[in-house]
Inverse folding.
């Protein structure tokens, strides 16, 4: 008995209106992409056979049934709904009122057994007048204009509540709906998940296309198996591990960018299906394997099955990353250790150079005059190494071999550079270096080592690292030009870097020219980073050429031999001292020195003996000198004696001569007696 | 040579005065040190070479400081060698610090003491800012004075200090009474007001010093000349005047005149030859035909003992027959 004027739906041509009998249980409208099944519990057998899936083009197979009569009620705005008794009997538990252009919920009389109520596609703004339908299990209010969840407090049996595509701003007033199984709130304006903790039977919760920015407050939903959060603005997810049954979680088209923001998912053992597509995280290179690695329980990712292959790859990649992290950690440890060692060496060096007072082991950096260099005041050098960036690259272990890091010295080989810190490091040259490592080294860097000590190991360097072409010196106490002479014994040097720090020789105007001059046979390319030009070579020759000329041509022969001999003697001495000397090597050395002498005889005169050696030699000579002195004194004494005697003889001779003659004449005066005397003498002799 | 003075001295003193013993001792010492090498070519030749090099002034190259300092001849040779080797540095116009000059000195004598160089630098810089740059000629001349007359200068310094303090070392030896009265005057007030000491007083003291001194000192006449030009002078003023006085330079005989300090045509030619040999350099300079004859060039300066009389090799050809055998054995 619907009055004609309330039969409002006939105006709509497109939809075949039959709000009466057909028992279509409509699923909530979902975005184009996916279909969702609503599987309800078997406890509601009345619906199990009647579930149909819809796509958006709803094809109604309408059944013509009795019409529903909407009569007016006593209240002017609420229509009263009545059905024919036949319908009531046929479909006693379901009532469909979709597309009825309803703006309010009508009062439904006499339908207390109603279990399914469908209000889809209306204009209802408030849920009202259904409090009496206390048997209601299924309530569909999809696509209305509801702004607030209300009026449901009596529906204690409600199992399915579909409120999609409304204008609901917050989840509330669901306290009594403890049996709720499916709650669909998609397409609303909800900003926060709240007031759902009591829904312990809830299995499906759809909050897609809302305004959620984060996910938490999910405790209490002990039955939840599916949670749809697509198309929100979610940046992080929490509490998912409190959902013991959650199997499917859809997070597509949100704002998740790191795994840390969803890390609780890793702890959820029930999750088997997850989507992240449309999030920034899905664009990352590490996305897939990070997810797979952290969520081993996953079966589907982004609606695609996770294959064993993928899982394996993920774990492999993850392992590699782990290793890389460990490696870089090790590197940084090593770096730190190196830095500390270098600091230590620097401090020792400063002590040695009398730059800081011996007593203070703490950070007292007083600058004190060193007795040797009053005009070169240095600050402590430790401050120069606060962060040793070093030549380490945190690559793979092949590139870096950090060796013997002890407290007093540091030896490090990094690709093509051998770095030595502290005088103890020089001993490392004795080690057995692999031919490959040693062959790759082209740069040798000395720091915090006295140059005089370096000089003594240069022959070793020459042999062990034959390809070393670039030498760097820092804090090595290079003070004299003469010291560069020592470098001439090397095979070849292409580049030389003398750091001004700790090497006063760099302050001299002429040092570069001297180096070029003395080491001209190397044809050096660069000194301290600047290229060597032809002009430099000419200038060097011009400045010091005469020195070489004088040294070679004006020295007497024996001096030349003795100086050269010294150099060769030293080399031989070294060779004899090394263990495992090979005779072939000796010859090579010989040839080398011969060749060297042949190339620049004039420069070979310019040698450098370290101060200690020099003093040693002078000491040795002292003995000889003393002997010579004594010897000469004896000679002089003899000579003067002889001279004196000679002079005395000169003086006395005339007198002596006269006496001799007189004696002789006197003897021969008496011929006879003289003859007798002579004969007597002859017989006596026999 | 055969003057009666020569015979007047007792033998030992005569030898000592001529430093013959020093050289003999050194020669024997060198012989002992290098006997393996020298025995190859004979002792006689060694002695010849040695004394030739002493004559030429090359014996001090790369020797220890104690030897270089031993005789005036050694010192003069060393100065000359230094000039010869590093004249090019001066010619280039570089101004160097005291340390760098010291470095250059050490190239020729590894254990040359720093104090001497410092003292020489003080003369140039008038005891001022010791890190100043000095020109080659300034340094060389000052160094010459300091090194050659080091003992003399020490005594002079002592005298100067005494004079400054008012003490007069000459009170014992008073030539004239009038000058004695002069000295009675307490110069304390004067010294504090005016700088230095009275030149005449100073001059007299120095004269006495020269007479007494057994080691070398500059010709007294020249010293007097230096002091006669001024009224008062300071110690370093005196030294600077000494160093720049060309008469003293000539008397020393080690270095050419100040004006000629940068000139050494023989070495310049040698240098050109060396430069032509620098690898990669296009030989633009025409080969000097005279360069080959360099060793035979007679020096323009007559009577100077410093010119290399012969190239070292030529000595062999002119020595007596005993060394000819060793020549052949070498080939």
């Amino acid at each position: 008995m619907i009055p004609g004027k309330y039969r409002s739906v006939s105006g709509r041509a497109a939809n075949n209106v039959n709000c009466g009998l057909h028992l279509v249980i409509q699923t909530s409208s979902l975005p184009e992409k996916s279909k969702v099944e609503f599987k309800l519990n078997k406890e509601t057998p009345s619906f199990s056979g009647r579930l149909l899936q819809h796509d958006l083009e709803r094809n109604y197979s309408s059944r013509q049934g009795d019409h529903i009569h909407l009569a007016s009620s006593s209240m002017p705005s609420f229509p009263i709904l009545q059905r024919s008794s036949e319908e009531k009997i046929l479909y006693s538990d379901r009532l469909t009122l979709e597309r009825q252009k309803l703006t309010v919920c009508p009062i439904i009389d006499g339908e207390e057994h109603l279990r399914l109520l469908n209000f889809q596609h209306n204009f209802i703004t408030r849920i009202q007048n259904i409090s009496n339908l206390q048997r209601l299990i299924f309530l569909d209010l999809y696509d209305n204009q509801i702004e607030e969840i209300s009026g449901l407090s009596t529906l204690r049996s409600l199992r399915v509540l579909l409120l999609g595509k409304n204008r609901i701003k917050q989840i509330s007033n669901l306290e009594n709906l403890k049996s709720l199984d499916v709650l669909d709130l998609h397409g609303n304006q909800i900003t926060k998940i709240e007031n759902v903790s009591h829904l312990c039977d809830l299995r499906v919760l759809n909050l897609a296309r809302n305004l959620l920015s984060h996910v938490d407050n999910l405790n209490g939903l002990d039955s939840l198996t599916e949670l749809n959060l697509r198309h929100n603005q979610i940046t992080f997810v929490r509490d998912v591990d409190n959902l013991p049954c959650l199997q499917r979680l859809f997070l597509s088209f949100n704002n998740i960018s790191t795994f840390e923001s969803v890390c609780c998912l890793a702890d959820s053992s029930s999750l088997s299906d997850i989507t992240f597509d449309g999030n920034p995280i899905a664009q990352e290179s590490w996305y897939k394997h990070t997810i797979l690695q952290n969520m081993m329980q996953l079966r589907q990712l982004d609606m695609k099955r996770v294959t064993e292959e993928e899982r394996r790859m993920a774990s492999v990649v993850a392992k590699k990353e782990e290793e890389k992290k460990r490696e870089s950690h090790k590197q940084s440890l090593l770096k730190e250790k190196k830095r500390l060692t270098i600091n230590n060496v620097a401090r020792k060096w400063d002590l040695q150079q009398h730059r800081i007072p011996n007593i203070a082991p703490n950070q007292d950096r007083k600058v004190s005059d060193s007795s040797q260099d009053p005009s070169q005041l240095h600050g402590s050098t430790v401050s120069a190494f606060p962060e040793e960036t070093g030549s380490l690259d945190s690559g793979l272990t092949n590139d870096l071999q950090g060796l013997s890091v002890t407290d007093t010295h540091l030896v490090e080989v990094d690709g093509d550079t051998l770095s030595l810190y502290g005088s103890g490091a020089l001993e490392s040259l004795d080690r057995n270096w692999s031919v490959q490592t040693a062959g790759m080294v082209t740069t040798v860097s000395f720091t915090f080592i006295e140059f005089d000590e370096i000089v003594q190991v240069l022959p070793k360097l020459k042999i062990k690292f034959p390809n070393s072409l670039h030498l760097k010196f820092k804090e090595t106490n290079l003070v004299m030009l003469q010291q560069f002479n020592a470098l001439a014994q090397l095979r070849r040097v292409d580049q030389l870097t003398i750091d001004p720090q700790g090497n006063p020789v760099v302050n001299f105007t002429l040092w570069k020219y001297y180096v070029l001059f003395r080491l001209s046979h190397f044809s050096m390319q660069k000194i301290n980073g600047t290229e060597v030009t032809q002009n430099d070579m000419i200038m060097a020759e011009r400045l010091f050429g005469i020195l070489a000329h004088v040294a070679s041509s004006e020295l007497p022969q024996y001096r030349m031999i003795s100086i050269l001999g010294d150099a060769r003697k030293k080399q031989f001495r070294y060779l004899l001292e090394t263990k495992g000397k090979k005779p072939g090597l000796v010859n090579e050395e010989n040839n080398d020195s011969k060749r060297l002498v042949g190339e620049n005889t004039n420069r070979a005169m310019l040698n450098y003996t370290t101060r200690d050696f020099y003093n040693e030699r002078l000491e040795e000579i002292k003995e000889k000198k003393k002997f010579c002195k004594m010897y000469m004194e004896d000679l002089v004494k003899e000579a003067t004696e002889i001279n004196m005697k000679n002079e005395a003889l000169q003086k006395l001779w005339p007198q002596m001569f006269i006496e001799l003659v007189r004696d002789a004449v006197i003897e021969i005066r008496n011929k006879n007696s003289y003859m007798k005397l002579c004969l007597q003498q002859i017989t006596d002799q026999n | 040579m055969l003057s009666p003075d020569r015979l007047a001295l007792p033998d030992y003193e005569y030898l000592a005065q001529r430093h013959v013993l020093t050289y003999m001792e050194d020669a024997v010492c060198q012989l002992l040190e290098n006997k393996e090498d020298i025995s190859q070519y004979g002792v006689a030749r060694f002695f010849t070479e040695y004394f030739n090099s002493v004559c030429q002034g090359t014996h001090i190259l790369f020797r220890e400081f104690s030897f270089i300092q031993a005789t005036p001849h050694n010192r003069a040779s060393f100065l000359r060698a230094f000039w010869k080797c590093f004249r090019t540095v001066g010619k280039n116009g570089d101004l160097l610090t005291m340390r760098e000059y010291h470095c250059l000195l050490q190239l020729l004598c590894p254990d040359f003491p720093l104090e001497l160089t410092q003292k020489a630098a003080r003369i140039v810089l008038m005891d001022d800012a010791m890190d100043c740059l000095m020109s080659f000629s300034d340094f060389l001349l000052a160094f010459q004075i300091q090194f050659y007359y080091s003992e003399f200068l020490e005594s002079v310094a002592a005298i100067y200090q005494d004079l400054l303090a008012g003490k007069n070392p000459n009170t014992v030896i008073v030539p004239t009474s009038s000058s004695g009265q002069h000295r009675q005057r307490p110069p304390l007030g004067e010294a504090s007001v005016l700088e230095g000491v009275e030149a005449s007083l100073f001059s007299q003291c120095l004269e006495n010093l020269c007479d007494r001194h057994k080691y070398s000192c500059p010709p007294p006449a020249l010293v007097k000349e230096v002091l006669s030009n001024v009224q008062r002078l300071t110690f370093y003023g005196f030294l600077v005047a000494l160093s720049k006085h060309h008469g003293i330079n000539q008397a020393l005989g080690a270095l050419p005149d100040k004006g000629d300090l940068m000139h050494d045509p023989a070495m310049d030619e040698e240098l050109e030859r060396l430069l032509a040999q620098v690898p990669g350099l296009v030989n633009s300079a025409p080969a000097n035909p005279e360069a080959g004859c360099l060793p035979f060039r007679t020096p323009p300066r007559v009577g100077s003992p410093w010119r290399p009389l012969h190239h070292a090799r030529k000595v062999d050809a002119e020595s007596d027959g005993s060394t000819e055998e060793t020549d052949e054995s070498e080939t």
Notes: Confidence is low (pLDDT under 50) at residues 1-67, 359-405, 578-599 of chain A. Residues 410-568+597-605 of chain A form a domain with the Leucine-rich repeat, LRR (right-handed beta-alpha superhelix) fold (CATH 3.80.10.10). The CA atoms of residues 492 and 511 of chain A lie 19 Å apart. DSSP finds 13 helices and 24 strands in chain A.
